[in-house]
Amino acid sequence: MKQTSIRTALALIAVAATTCLAPAQAQGSWPDKPVTLVVPYSAGGPTDVVARVLAVPMGKSLGQTVVVENTVGAGGTLAGARVARSKPDGYTVLFQHMGMATAPALYKKLTFDPLKDFDYIGQVMDVPMTLLSRKDLPVANFQELLAYMKKNGDKVSMAHAGIGAVSQLCALLFTSQVGVTPTQVPYKGAGPALNDLMGGQVDVLCDQTTSTGPVIKDGTRVKVFGVTTPQRLASFPNLPTLDEQGLKGFDVKVWHGMYVAKGTPKEHIGKINAALRAALQDDNVKTRLAELSSEIVSPDKVTPESLQKQLQSEMVKWDKVIKAANVQAE
Question: Is the peptide bond before 31 cis (omega within 30 degrees of 0)?
Fold first, then answer.
């Protein structure tokens, strides 16, 4: 009897211990399958490249594979709609740039609300932009470029990568601030626009350093007039900003953030955020982003609150610019 009682007592203790541990184990089990990182643009493009650089170290932190999925179309809004409609469990994450803030002004029939349909993970990195011209444009500096554009008006051609592209947005803000009226020339992507600039078919282009960096370093195929951010770039320390050359307050950068569907558990958001923070401290990630002339944001910006604030302010900023230019995407 005594031996049976001991066995019974031990069994009861084991059951009690299992019962107490079960909730903790359940809470700590997420994620228990791969996480999908949705990219709104084509494989091989700047945003896709960064997503794939981040996916590996984020997967290590989460203990699951992070799979990059390219959901392309409608200026990135198809990807936004896909994540907004996904199950709010944290397994589907959107990696999007400033297009998240410009979509409401550009698309009349947008099927999601950037402010109401998402929870936020945090800001990730910024890609500065640069102002370039064809090599044989008869100007030597930024002030001469402004004078040339004001004198020649719509005879000057300014290329961009299509309606809603960051290069078009930069062009719209630039022309509105300096009071010039060049002819806007849309292309199907940044590559063709830059190629025609180098070939002398168009006069001016404003685009991100992930595209223009190698050409600037080459130094023989275009003229470069400045950086569109308030601070100079570590990768091009001798390149002045437009702000310091007289265009005060001019600030355009391709900022990036991560989002999940509204209602995602805070614990899951916290784990994704922690994985993102760890990835941004990874030496390989730092090296690859530096090679792309991209700048990792400070740790205080890798928060849901910071991303929400950035999105709200950028929506206000670009809504005014886009509506003033009467630009509408289909």
Answer: yes
Please tell me the predicted confidence (pLDDT) of residue 112: 97
The secondary structure element, H or E, covering residue 115 is none
pLDDT value at residue 127? 92
- What b-and-e string marks burial along 193-228, b requiring 16 or more CB atoms within 10 Å of the CB? bbbbbbeeebbbbbbbbbbbbebbeeeebbbbbbbb
pLDDT at 300 > cutoff 90: yes
Q: How many residues does the chain have?
A: 330
pLDDT tens track for 213-269? 999 999 999 999 999 999 999 889 999 999 999 999 999 999 999 999 999 999 999
Q: Are 194 and 213 in contact (CB under 8 A)?
A: no
CATH at residue 291: 3.40.190.150
Domain that holds residue 191: 128-227
Q: Is residue 250 part of a domain?
A: no
Based on the fold, state whether residues 140 and 121 are members of the same structural domain: no
pLDDT tens track for 195-209: 999 999 999 999 999
Q: What is the CATH number of the domain that holds 151?
A: 3.40.190.10
Both 261 and 116 in one domain: the answer is: yes
Of 202, 244, 239, 243, nearest in space to 224 by CA: 239
Q: How many domains does the chain have?
A: 2
* CA–CA dist 102, 178 (Å, integer): 21
3-state DSSP call for residue 145? helix
Question: DSSP secondary-structure letter at 263?
Answer: T
